[in-house]
Queue: 4 jobs
Job 1
Amino acid sequence: MKNITLLFALLFFAGAATFSQEQISFKFSNAKIIGGTHDVLQFDIEIKADAPGTFHRDLQVYLDYNTLAFGEGAVAAGKVSISALELMDSHYLTVSLVDNTPSKFAFISEAVEELNQPGTATHFSEVPVEYTGFIRVQMEIDDNNILAGIAFDEELMNGGQYMQSTTSTDPIAYNDPCVFENDLMDFSFIAHEIDLTTGWAGIS
């Protein structure tokens, strides 16, 4: 009987831990074409948490794209630029921007003080409960007659997102799976007006 009671207690606490695990959501926004010697697709990636008080630590973004539109190995070819938005512009650095496959690239970030400080606004950025800018992506277009075919690789991103403990320097995983609001699979270059006022930002 004691063993059964203990089993139920363990299941209860495991369930409570899962239930209380914070959720992080990703979405694309502000997609537009920037005209130049080579047209560029620019878009933002925004994130939000389902509850206040989480400070992001390590985040991973894996993006699939149409190689007919952008070519293969876009990062190695110098066709991808990443710049920081509000939630990435302080306290964080880029660990990696690299081709994962010929049609996918990875962006990985980490907090500068993640091994030294608990989660506070002094050393980390709190993820709001409303969508807020994380990074801006620019991709040089090879063929603007082709759909962009851009989407989050949910399988690779799920389980790879971490916040900082507020009582120690330990990482705490956001809930797996994440929430993914939309994609740019059917984004048409020729259907969108070209912005001629902003030039290609180059590789950052």
Note: The longest strand covers residues 24-34.
Job 2
Amino acid sequence: MNVGLLVSVALNVSIIVMLCIGFTFTYMMEKFPNFAHTSFASIGTVCTYYLVRFYGFNPYYTWPISALMGGVLGVVLYVLIVKPIKGRAYSEITLTFTFYIISQIITQFLAMFSFWLLVENRVLSQGFNLYNYDLRINGFPAIGIIAPGTVLL
């Protein structure tokens, strides 16, 4: 079997599992489905890409920074949006639709950032791949081991 295919499957499954865990925890704590959850992950991904591509960071060293960016955004949105809405009479659908709109706004900001990278730096960021920056363990891409290991922790 193709090693690249195995690594891709392991990585994609790991990403989906982590997003599902985060979505479930958010729902358990806040009692509404937060559709902006994947947008928070996208912000972390773009942050990683920017730090790796422009500052030469190792992609694995950017994980804490990316997680912090998503976490800070989550806290800011909680304080500025969730808390005031929950302070009034509200239904879960109100917060659900609110965060759907927020996810659309975040997506558009990421598109603007991507456009800025293209215009100002002549760097195409759509569909980027950090494969060339990955470490190798006995010729095997490290992400194929680290991503599933992160999920298990």
Note: DSSP finds five helices and two strands in the chain.
Job 3
Amino acid sequence: MENIYVFDDGVIRGFIEMNGTQLSKIYVDSFFQSQGVGDALIRYATEEFGADNLWALEKNKRAISFYQNHGFQVTGRKRLEENTTEYLVKLER
């Protein structure tokens, strides 16, 4: 796994975690959302790591829309998130 961080004044404002070509995690500080940080992170993940798949919470429509705007499509596969009753959906590019 490899982590890439975005810092602002020494504070982490966002990061991605890659596991091969799977985008395992993406996070953007709520104060920096809708400012291009997530766009830059996902673009970096796809261009530098060849990110081609990820899992997202099925109920998180905002995140799924974000991923779709970056070329990912819902595959129809889903699974339960560990230790929860929430479903994850698979997206691929």
Note: The longest helix spans residues 37-49.
Job 4
Amino acid sequence: MLLRTTLALLLCVASLAHAQVGAPGPKKRVGRTARHDYYHAVSNDKNYDEDNKLRICADAFLDVTSQVVAGTKYTFHVNGCVVNSAENAGEDCDCGDKTLDTYEVVVFAQSWTHTYEVSSIAKVSAIKADL
């Protein structure tokens, strides 16, 4: 009995040591919760660092990776256009005939405390969702 318990404990410890705790997950489709967190973050100017001047209207979500920390850190890839304010980056934004580019938008969300932050926005070379 003691040998079986010890073996089980060793297997658990080994599997935990092998796991990449806090590592971002694989790219995946952008689900409802991720979209909700994205729009809560990007549609309010107070959620941006003062050095982060870009405001993007997301015309299409390509993919997202997420990492659970004290909330969720998302890295979104979106096709979108530059807009003049966070208010114009909300869910009902429209790029119209503006040029679309691909952007990487990093968002931190802790929905239970209503904490949303846009950590960075960067234009990237065009990518295709590999889903």
Note: The beta strands are 56-68, 72-82, 101-110, 115-124.
